[in-house]
Amino acid sequence: MATMIISFFSPYVIFSLIWVMMISSQAYSKDDRKTYIIYMGDHPKGMDPTSLPSLHTSMAQKILGSDFKSEAILHSYKKSFNGFVMKLTKEEAKRMAEMEDVVSVFPNKKNGLHTTRSWDFIGFPHQVKRTNEESEIIVGVLDSGIWPESESFSDKGFGLPPNKWKGSCHNFTCNRKIIGAKSYNIEGSYAKDDIRSARDSNGHGSHVSSTIAGNLVDSASLLGYASGSGRARGGAPSARIAIYKVCWSSNGCDDANVLAAFDDAIHDGVDVISISVGADVAFPFSYFEDAINIGSFHAMKKGILTSNSANNLGPDLSSMTNYSPWLLSVAAATINRKFLTKVQLGNGITFEGVSINTFDLKNKMFPLIYGGDAPNTAGGYNSSISRYCYKDSLNKHLVKGKIVLCESILVPTDIQLLSGAVGMIHGAISPKDLPNNYAVPSTFLSLRNFRLVHSYLASMGNNATATIFKSDEVRDSLAPYVASFSSRGPNPITPNILKPDVVAPGVNILAAWSPISPISDVKGDKRLVHYNIISGTSMACPHATAAAAYVKSFHSNWSPAMIKSALMTTATPLSATLNPEAEFAYGAGLINPIKAANPGLVYDINEVDYVKFLCQEGIETKNLGILTKDHSSCKKVGKTESVYDLNLPSISLYTNVSSFTRIFHRTVMNVGSATSTYKVKVMYPSFLDIQVKPDTLSFECIGQKKSFSVIIEGSMNVNTASASLIWDDGTFQVRSPIVVFNQLPVPPFIFI
Ligand SMILES: *[C@@H]1O[C@H](CO)[C@@H](O)[C@H](O)[C@H]1NC(C)=O
Ligand SMILES: *[C@@H]1O[C@H](CO)[C@@H](O)[C@H](O)[C@H]1NC(C)=O
Ligand SMILES: *[C@@H]1O[C@H](CO)[C@@H](O)[C@H](O)[C@H]1NC(C)=O
Ligand SMILES: *[C@@H]1O[C@H](CO)[C@@H](O)[C@H](O)[C@H]1NC(C)=O
Hints:
- It is a single chain.
- By secondary structure, the chain is of the alpha/beta class.
- It has 17 helices and 35 strands.
- It folds into five domains: about 70 residues, Peptidase S8 propeptide/proteinase inhibitor I9 (Alpha-Beta Plaits, 2-Layer Sandwich); about 325 residues, CATH 3.40.50.200; about 140 residues, Glucose Oxidase, domain 1; about 35 residues; about 110 residues, Immunoglobulin-like (Sandwich).
- Helices cover about 20% and strands about 25% of the residues.
- The relative contact order is 0.12.
- The structure holds 2-acetamido-2-deoxy-beta-D-glucopyranose (4 copies).
- The site of one 2-acetamido-2-deoxy-beta-D-glucopyranose (NAG) has 5 residues, from loops.
């Protein structure tokens, strides 16, 4: 499943996963055909794309025979690549996959959705040097839609849309800021609160869009919080937004919608794509059985970089969901704003927890009850479930007027607790960076403090009381560090490619919101606002997208790989003490947009290089021909190049032998000073030896390329080792992270 990537992780995920597995293990009959995506790569040579639907029809007829009806085909992808969507049984899907010209057939997986002092925090002030080109940059945002009346999206002072723009607005009034707006719901299921247009009923899409390209809005705050700097703003405030609504409250952000949006966005002429969406579970999908990998591959071919959130399934290793090398994968870090919410017990003892609590209980004490002592037995729940305060599991009468003590991270998704309990106190494993808005006063305590509250409750019985205070906004002097929820590498299917690529602010981010969506996401919560503070890799991704747009505004002809390289080689690695997973948590480090606009050297990668990489990855020759413009085969692209030589600005070496030697080849292009001499600096632990040959690179002009080799030798006495390589000419420091590791973690969701 894919969802918007905000930082919710609850027992609900586990419950729904079990449910999905039960459903999918049932035997198939014709009646329970499921929606599949049939992906067919590039347009067939010499064929008019408008005739693709009839090709799709004849393929569907072949598979369904007499069962075929014209409405069987739910959607044809035809603008930027070739494919279609239809309902099939498992057996039919298998036969479809064997047909000529089919690259892959995969079920329509549901994805989920994964805030601005944050810009100042990373050293990117509003008054930074900008070019007029910024207003020519169009950012395609695939999300839950947008709230067009938000001040963040006012088009005051904007000129006409760029000439290259071919997009349009459907059932939506665009302006000169929001120049494109479409919505996709291929399976056609709507919930009551879905708005059937690109208008945002959720808030997530408005939040993401305003972080990328929102206007500077003074006096933005969430009910007075985050008003310290008094402003919300996007990183590229002059850029234009094209919104592609792919996420619905009824069915998440499914692959069929996501792929349709890519098909349009690439054709419409966007410059950068931002997608804060990913699968709900960390199951490793191969590169061509997932809409985001496929869509971003075709975007890359047209010179468009796709920025994608790493997902919120951390802190386990291998918990990312998209890891193709052409994506910019973004992890989430804290900023120096944090929210603390205190609890006071009847005995006067106070504990500090984390949440964003805008409610004021005015110091009044309320009876305290343990969720495990208030099961909704009539509803079939016992204390082993109600201790987690899981949806519907609490007895309304018992919790009414009380503060409930709950054992886990809970996102109340219904009104039950609103109408009953006064507040909630939770115990969290890693509470320091998990602030959320809740529908009732709530706070998250460390497990240790949680247990202390629990023993107070146990000793006082019915006499236990507590109150929850309004949150205090404080400075976090440890920031930045990678948020616990942020998904970690390594890359589960190509361990020799480092993921994530970079980290960006994703905790406590203030940005635009949909004023019809309650800030806690709970129906019945009356707090409706224009700006909200939320957290997630969903919030980190748009920061990286804006940085990419900013770089592109200075270098309109740079390839996606060059922009990604600029962002990576200028990033600042975070503290290894605060981030034990090191590169697997933060990739190259925290983005630095100003430096990225002027990186000195870049590592470029073109389509053919990626194709060589795919050959190495064992993609079938049959498929490769369909994927590429010139319909070449692995044989034709020359000797199968090794994954070690894909020209990324990072090096990842997975090795399971005790002593090893491995050579990596890299090529850099001079984009800094015309004449310059770079010397290499390599940092590595004593059990490794890293040689770079040559160790000096001299350039005589801009655009000149130089190649070098990196030889890594050694024997591992730890599981993971961090190293780095820096090309330094005295002006530019071009840094590549190096990671060597000897264990491949199992993705976290295999536990079922
Ligand atoms: C257009 O959008 C409105 C809400 O903004 C919705 O009620 C209506 O059904 C939509 N029309 C179509 C044709 O989708
Ligand atoms: C509580 O309910 C769960 C799920 O229905 C069940 O597996 C468990 O055995 C029950 N526990 C008790 C103590 O009854
Ligand atoms: C609760 O308070 C009542 C009245 O003050 C007292 O009689 C009772 O013993 C107390 N119960 C506990 C468990 O402390
Ligand atoms: C070591 O890695 C290679 C591929 O890199 C793999 O084929 C082999 O099975 C691995 N051996 C062990 C013991 O994990």
